[in-house]
Amino acid sequence: RYTSGQDMVSILQLVQNLMHGEEEEETSQAYRLQNVGEQGHMALLGHSLAAYISVLDRERLRKLTTRILSDTTLWLCRLFRYENGSAYYHEDDREGLLKICRLVIHTRYEDYTIEGFNVLYSKQPVIYISSAARTGLGQALCNQLGLPLYCMCRVPCNTMFGSQHQMDVALLDRVIKDDVESGKLPLLLVANAGTPGAGHTDKLGRLKELCEQYDMWLHVEGVNLATLALGYVSSSILAATKCDSMTLTLGSWLGLPAVPAVTLYRHEDPSLSLAAGLTSSQPVEKLRALPLWLSLQYLGHDGIVERIKHASQLSQRLLENLKNLDFIKTSVEDELSSPVVVFRFFREYSNRDQTSHAGQASTIQHPIINNERHIYDTFNQWLGEQLAQLVPASGVDVVELEDEGTCVRFSPLMTSAVLGTEIQDVDQLVDCLKMKIPVLTSTLQLREEFEQEVRRTVGLLYIEDLSWPGLGVVRYNYHSNGKSDDKQEKELEKINTELLKKLNELESDLTFSLGPEFGGQKNCVYIGMVTEDLDVSELVETIAATGREIEENSRLLENMTEVVRKGIQEAQLQLQKANEERLLEEGLLRQIPVVGSVLNWFSPFQASPKGRTFNLTAGSLESTESTYVSKAQGTGTTPPPTPTSSLAKQRLPGQKIFKRSMRSSDGFSETSSVSHCEDLERMDQRPPAPSPGQEQGPLETEKAEEQKEVARAAKTDTEDIPSDKSRDCTKVEEQESQR
Q1: 159: closest CA among 146, 144, 148, 169?
Q2: Per-residue pLDDT tens over the stretch 243-261
Q3: Angle subtended by helix axes 290-322 and 412-419, to nearest 10
Q4: Distance between CA atoms of 236 and 339, rounded to whole angstroms?
Q5: Mean pLDDT, to the nearest integer, of 510-538?
Q6: Strand 612-615 relative to strand 620-623, pairing
Q7: Cα gap 41→294, rounded to integer Å
Q8: Which domains, from first to last, does the chain contain?
Q9: Residues 314, 92: contact at Cβ < 8 Å?
Q10: Where is the PDXDC1/PDXD2 second domain (predicted)?
Q11: pTM of the prediction?
């Protein structure tokens, strides 16, 4: 098919189908995750221009690439206050650090180019990274450099003083001393100006002094480096300008698609930079900077600063609003200005609970503490997913932190330029958060009450699932004696599935489901988030009653099937016996084919048809003689009513099920008792008896008779029921009086 080649139109159509699929008109907007503006088109144009420029003659190409590379490097060094720096442009943001490690190895090991790994074997190199660094960064560096994993040292963060996401400088100093004394060579330290999780910045000033003391290379990376372009920069971030190298990810900061990351570094020996791969003699390699060169010229200095400033204002706006919210705990480095805002839902304990929990935490991690943290992690996971779904333009996501647990992160420097986040999006995010907080607090409060109610209710089994964001998990416990485990498991699945269907048919605000798709319990009913006006006892009672109703109906069907089977067998035996009796009554001659016909013609034999009917209500066989006599099918006895849940709770107009009434229970009982007393007083009232000479009309006579009947009924209810002997005596007296 492709031997002769294809035209341009067919190839472009094939690419379009691969990008958008067959349903392009319906789902084209879903695939467009980013609105590519003019600055985005400028960056994309750079890739096409680089391909065209690469076909120029060698001398013209060399001059053009040198100009593009020098201009871009100069602009970036001035923009981010990095004086006398060189730049390396790369697609993978880890590639710059990899090249820096090779540069340091070439610098510290003079014979590395000749002897290779033998030099490293004689004096083991050590690279230090923070425990809060990106996951898998150390392993990736060791794999690319060909070093064993023990050459990578993870430095713990602070535990007592300072931020728990900052590198422990004192501990790092002791570790480096121990490595030097053991004959190792400290090479490089990777610090963070904005950790990947919480966005905290290491103490870069002290780390720089430590690196100078041990002749180490300091490399800095992180999202907070973007604030170096602003007019006011905090001292902790400003210290990054003194480091040996830094990596900048301008694509996400400025919303530019397909632009390379940049690693700025300072080094005096160009030959070692060339050996490490930081520079290239090929002009085509220098064209990587062309998309960034075009984008920087399009945005200008003011446009770049404005975008970074706008992202900082968004984070500051959210941080100010979160301070006024209850049950929201933030984890930021600077309360006044933090480019990354991390927060989570958390309820403070009372003083007594804090003392008991502190005593438990000081010894061993108590199971209750672990369960509570797991529950909070689950709730914050749900909160982050809800906020991201309700306000997608905010760009919030869920992050796992070592000390805090699951948190919600807002990092506008990484998302606002791409998603177009505005101030109103932050305000909408706060409004949604205000609506979700009461739901979280109510569900957290009612979880324990729900567990206690379920454990007290016969027939229900409480399933503890700490990873479920909701009220809880319940299972209707079905036990059947004489059934195998497989049949009992199928019956349990059938009942709980039907129970879930019945609960979803109720007009309530609750969500009932089978739980998560993966990792959930089988044959259970998962109840989602609830509000504070939930009547937990009514909910549990309804679940139990509905389950019993389904179980009784299931057993009734099983019993009916067994009764019908036995009834059919009994009917066959009775019909066989009836046939034998009929043969005896008719005689042997009537069974002969010709003789029997003649005999029946002379002397007909009258026999009533005898059949059997099965009464499903009574579960017994009955004769069909009455049916042939009356020419109609008998209805039999009235079947018993289907068992239903007796939950006829009085509700206010418009009040949904499982909701507590606004009227207090005491007031409701008092009103009911008063109305009941009034009804009794009306029944006890009797009209005065007429005088002997006064005549009564028909209407008055009828009313008097009704009042007598009411009085007689009331008297009968209060008196004891007469015995059988008294009834017989009464009948005898009536007969004698009639005689």
Answers
A1: 169
A2: 999 999 999 999 898 899 9
A3: 110
A4: 13
A5: 88
A6: antiparallel
A7: 10
A8: 63-306 (3.40.640.10), 446-553 (3.90.1150), 588-629 (no CATH)
A9: no
A10: 338-444
A11: 0.74
What confidence tens digit (pLDDT) does each residue in 264-311 have? 999 989 999 999 999 988 888 889 999 999 999 999 999 999 999 999
Q: Calculate the CA 175 to chain-centre distance.
A: 42
Q: According to the model, what pLDDT value does residue 739 have?
A: 43
Dump strand ranges (E) for 597-655.
612-615, 620-623
What pLDDT was estimated at residue 539? 93
In sequence order, the 6+-apart residues with CB closer than 8 A to the CB of 415 are 252, 394, 395, 421
Return d(Cα 96, Cα 364) in angstroms, integer: 44
Q: Is 400 helix (H, G, I), strand (E, B) or coil?
A: strand
d(CA 373, CA 386): 20
Residue 476 φ then ψ, to 5°: -80, 120
The two structure tokens encoding residue 419: 């998603």
CB of 377 within 8 A of CB of 405? yes
Higher per-residue pLDDT: 684 or 303: 303
Instruction: Give the Cα-Cα-Cα angle 220, 222, 224 (nearest 5 degrees).
Output: 110
Do 100 and 188 touch, CB atoms closer than 8 A? yes
Pairing of strands 460-463, 217-221: unpaired
Secondary structure (3-state) at 648: coil
Whether the per-residue pLDDT at 203 is higher than 60: the answer is yes
Residue written as tokens 């006579």? Answer: 701
- The β-bridge partners of 474 are 462, 525
3-state SS track over 455-484 = HHCCCEEEECCCCCCCCEEEEECCCCCCCC
Start-to-end CA distance of the chain, whole Å, equals: 120
Nearest to residue 343, comparing CAs of 411, 389, 422, 417?
A: 411
d(CA 411, CA 314): 9
Q: Is the CB of residue 200 less than 8 Å from the CB of residue 163?
A: yes
CB atoms within 10 A of CB 619: 14
DSSP single-letter state for residue 167: B
Report the pLDDT averaged over residues 393-421: 92
- Please give the mean pLDDT across all residues of the chain: 80
- The sheet carrying 341-345 orders its strands as 328-330, 341-345, 405-410, 397-401
Q: Which residues contact 380 (CB under 8 A, 6 or more apart)?
A: 344, 345, 398, 405, 406, 407, 408
* H or E, element range at 154: strand 152-155
Task: Please give the pLDDT value at position 673.
Answer: 40
Give the pair of three-digit tokens for residue 239.
């210290």
Q: How far apart are CA 371 and CA 455, in angstroms?
A: 19
How far apart, in whole angstroms, are the C-alpha atoms of residue 201 and residue 195? 7
What does the block give as tokens for 26?
Answer: 């319906």
Is residue 460 within 8 A of residue 443, CB to CB? The reply is: no
Contact partners, residue 65, CB within 8 Å, separation at least 6: 53, 283, 284, 286, 287
Compute the C-alpha angle 103/106/111, nearest 5°. 175
pLDDT at 350 over 60: no
Evaluate whether 338 touches 318 at the Cβ level (below 8 Å): no
Amino acid in position 676: H
Tell me how many helices (H) and strands (E) the chain has: 26, 17
| Residue 204 and residue 236 in contact, taking contact as beta carbons nearer than 8 Å | yes
